[in-house]
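Ticket #4471: structure export looks truncated?
Reporter: QA, pipeline team
Priority: medium

Steps to reproduce: submit the single chain below to the structure queue and open the exported record.
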Amino acid sequence: MPSLSRSLLDSFIQRDTATTDKNGNPFILGVIIVSKTRYLTKSRFKTAQECPTKLFYGNRPNEYENKKLDNPFLEALADGGFQVGALAQIYFPGGIEINTKDHDQSVKETEELLNQENVTIFEAAFRYQNLFVRTDIIVKIGNFIRLIEVKAKSYDETEDYFYDKRLQKKGIYKIKSNWQEYLYDIGFQTYVCKKSRSDLKFTPYLMLADKTKTASIEGLNQRFILLDQNGRTRVEVEPNTTLETVGDKILKEINVQEEVNLIHAGKNLGEKSRLELKIPSFEEEIQQLAELYEKDQKANPKVSSECKKCEFRTQSTEKKNGFHECWLPIVSEKNINNPFVFDIWNFRKSADFMTSRKYLMNQILETDIDPKEDSEKPGLTQSQRQWIQVQRVTNKDNSPYINFEALKEEISSWKFPLHFIDFETCTTALPFNKGRRPYEVTAFQFSHHTIQKAGKIEHVGQYINFERGHFPNFDFVRALKKELEQDQGTIFKYAPHENTVLCQIYSQLKVSTEPDREELMEWIKTITESKNSSSKKKSEDMLWKGKRSMVDLCEMVKNYYYHPFTNGSNSIKQVLPAILRESQFLKTKYQKPIYGTRGGIQSLNFKEWVWLKLDDSGEIIDPYKQLPKLFENVSIEQLDSLMTDEDQLNDGGAAMTAYTKMQFTRMTDIERGELKNALLRYCELDTLAMVMLYEHWIEITKPQAKKKAA
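Actual output as written to the record:
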């Protein structure tokens, strides 16, 4: 018999005990098969909330290319949800977990437990028609149930608001976009549970990591080890982990009945309801999605500016392109690979232009962007940079934009030796150490390159913490201080991250008992600038601008330099390949094995390394792709995509995931050593990329180069 796809197997099942294996997975026995219900679960509902058409594409991994990381274990490492879920269960002693993966059996076991007057159940299963949910925690007392959804998301009741405060002042209760995913999730679960058991009263709660609380024990996170067993991710809880041994509670239950009522009533749309907008009610939407999924039908695509982030928008030619299928009725096949309006850097008006049927970048006029100068700000304004990007695309012009004079003026103010630094950090829901809060920053690695006035380049320093459970931040600053305090040379960062991290460590030092805390705090202030945006919450001693504040090369890219090969991105991982393609100076220099040699460029992790290599078609190979992968069959782009902070450039997902694997899984010394060496190489390349950018700018601002460019 020919093999069947997973999706097809899910659609059929033999009504016989021999047709499921010990894990409840269906297989075919004989040839007599009958239809099996395909359930809309909470994970599929979440996907459908992003885009209903994704239900169809995502169910066909062999047909449609998907650039999203499909690795539950690595996603769990980055997210921390499994560990938070395990800690939440510790908070409910005596809870009974339903372990079976079989739908029918899990519902049956749930019903049997619900017959008890009082009971706490983990992973309880509820089914209504073609809807199915497993709930994280339910606490039943009589006919009343607390329905608790556990999320690895931070919460501070003094700062985090579920509603748009501006609209709330007008009496309009609209849930903020950053909370929609979580509240719709619990809203869906509440709906299914109530329909399944109308005789019980369900009250929905979110359980979140409380940023106002601190861990009262050491090594809380180390009690929850993440395991990858035959493709299944689970948490192994260390022995003797009880309510008493985990210390003070750092997870908080929040009653969200009001928010769920708002969603169910269809009033979470600002000033208009679903009825007024003539769109399906919440219940009707669920029914429509469930029917689409059960029948394996494709939802009519509803294209929008959100398509920019679609995981089915790929360059692969081996499989079908879901993005193309959605857009081809609107955009011709000839233009489908052209940049879209929403590809314009930091452009907030793309939805408006798409309403007027302007979908592609080459349809945008100068009046649409309306580029304006800012006399108080040096270099390009945001609108000017956007218009340069549009011009280059429209004219098929691959030449860079360079503000030679501004670059030269900035460069002339720098003081040798020059220092290029890059940090790798992570934040975890469950703190490493006593006294630490959920999602406090952990700075575990840095790299440091220098350039002397005579032009000598060296990779002179690095730091990495690989000790499990150790809080490295103060050792990190001590090591960095030792590297940078030897002179008064200019220090470079790329994006605000390094400044933000050092300011956060400053705050940690302030409440610490470190013997050298005052010395470290004063040094941090010399190379950083506190954020003015939150000055209202800061005392005078928390406001400063250091005389040696780090220079942000990313801001300089935004202000003075644009290369079409970056496709509008300012990430160093996009800028590096672009300048390597552009610069003959860099091509000539780095195609030789000079890196990691005594007579060339000193390196702490490479020997006789060639950075500029060509593929079979003569194109430059991205230097990052020359490094060994941190995880097998997973690209650095996929790992970096795990970073979801829109304020950052999302370049740190790979290192963060590697570090959390070292911290929260069992590894051999050999595996730890290999991972450590790989991380050192990646971080070194980050600071070398900054060096190469500097070298490129020095070369193009020379008088003869400027004359040639003109």
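Status: closed, not a bug. The export was complete when the record was re-opened. Leaving a note from the reviewer for reference: Residues 408-552 form one domain.
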